Amino acid sequence: MLSIRKMKVIEELEELPEGLIAQVLDYVRILKQNNERFDTTIVSEPSLSKDWNSKDEDEAWKEL
């Protein structure tokens, strides 16, 4: 079953001229790509934080 928000998006899409549908599809794909990149960043944070959270790292970046 579709959520209310998904149903509303579909309703809005049905009212758009065909020429705008391609733009909406491109935008949706960009959103998905950005979300996947964000997920990858979040997943890698615990392993990278071991290197980031050190006195040597703090010293190296203190001038910025």
Q: Would you kindly provide a written description of the structure presented here, covering whatever features stand out?
A:
The protein has 64 residues and is mostly helical. It has one domain. 84% of the residues lie in helices and 0% in strands. The chain contains three helices and no strands. It has helices at residues 4-15, 18-52, 55-61. The protein is elongated and about 55 Å long.
Give descriptors for this structure.
64 residues, mainly alpha, 0% strand, elongated
Alpha-carbon distance between the two ends: 51 Å
Structural class: mainly alpha
Assembly state (oligomeric)? single chain
Q: What fraction strand?
A: under 5%
Q: Please count the helical segments.
A: 3
Strand and helix order: HHH
Mean pLDDT: 83
Write the SSE topology.
Blueprint: H1 4-15, H2 18-52, H3 55-61
Could you give a short description of this structure?
The chain has three helices and no strands. With 64 residues, the protein is mainly α. The longest helix has 35 residues, at 18-52.
